[in-house]
Amino acid sequence: MTSASPASADTPSTPAAMTTLLPSFRATLRAFTASPATAFQHIRSTTAAPLSAAKQLFVLDSSFNPPTKAHFRIALSAFNDSTATTTNTTAGSAAAAAAAEKRLLLLLATNNADKAPKPAPFDDRLAMMTLLSSEVSALSSTCTSPTTPAAVDVALTKHARFLDKASALRSEYTGAHEFVFLTGFDTLVRIFDPRYYPEAEHRLDGLSAFFERGVVWCMFREGEGYGGRREQEAWLDGLRGGKLEGVGGRREWAGRVRFIENDAGEVVSSTKVREAVKGGNGEVLEALLTKSVREYVLERGLYLDDGGGGAGFDH
Description:
The chain is an alpha/beta fold and 315 residues long. It has helices spanning 15-19, 22-34, 69-76, 89-101, 122-143, 162-172, 185-191, 207-213, 229-240, 270-279, 282-288, 291-300; strands at residues 40-45, 56-62, 102-109, 151-157, 178-184, 214-219, 257-260. Helix 5 (122-143) links the parallel strand 3 (102-109) and strand 4.
């Protein structure tokens, strides 16, 4: 069973305002952690529209430790729509209607399959995600329809695997006909890694349910051991060619995966951010973080040591 809190359309957009919400975030996290029956918790939204209003849900699942400009760019890809800039009344109305049915979810997993909850506490991460949601909503609205605020949600889940997250989201966003998961290449590979499915004898057959309404938009990620664009496209060609059939993979799943461009070129990792904070390199931080998130990190003293600063909720 999952649980969702009411949406809030008055999402704070300044670091100072966010600090006033930290006690509320901590209380929510404690209740969420203590409830074995609750696997999903909606936190805040940039719109008052119900979750069921979304017809197409874009999901950006990450540790957000902290949210970077890479998160910002991939989040904006959900709202890129060239028809929205037209001055034609009919086309503009159609774009506005499409925007109203589209929704973005920033999702934080408290049980990550590979990462421990350090260094930044979860309440600080929720605060930074909320700031990011405001920035994404503000900019994406100018790209789609100035009269239709882009809907961006912030939520928690206890599920570590995308297969389980998708199942929970179908129960919450009941009107959605498509779930688009925005990932980097490293995450794409993990989705198809048999070692994460021990209950299925390390087979991928269970992903059939994921791909019924789920698709993956994967941003090319060069460097950090992932190879270049050619290697990443070759990986998808291998899936299409049947390389995972021996463990239950299906060739047609390759058609549910789409690569999207990394316009920035370089890898913007959270590790680089933490190193820049420790080194006091403001110029690098400006290049890696959006304005409100950067101000929040500095104001809260996050990432100055392994404890992450602050005195928040870690688990």
